[in-house]
Amino acid sequence: MDETLKLILDELKVIKQEQEELKKLVSSMKGEVVKDLKPYFDSVEKRIDEKTSELNETFRPTKYY
After folding, report:
1. Distance CA 52, CA 46 (A)
2. Tally of CA atoms within 13 A in the half-sphere of 27 that contains its CB
């Protein structure tokens, strides 16, 4: 019984260590995804700004003097 309990505790220890490693990897991957997507979002933001500016020019009231 004591031997079985020791084996279970050892396995739990290994699982905890591997879980911590996975947390670190996921955190690192999340950072990489954000970093890799930044240029895409920057270009989308620029495109939206350009189109908004075009729409503003199109719908701006014309002044007649």
Report:
1. 10
2. 6
pTM over cut 0.70: no
Structure tokens at 17: 């260590």
pLDDT digits (tens, 9 = 90+) for 25-43: 999 999 999 899 999 999 9
The tokens describing 52, both together, are: 């908004």
SS (H, E, C) 1-64: CHHHHHHHHHHHHHHHHHHHHHHHHHHHHHHHHHHHHHHHHHHHHHHHHHHHHHHHHHHCCCCC
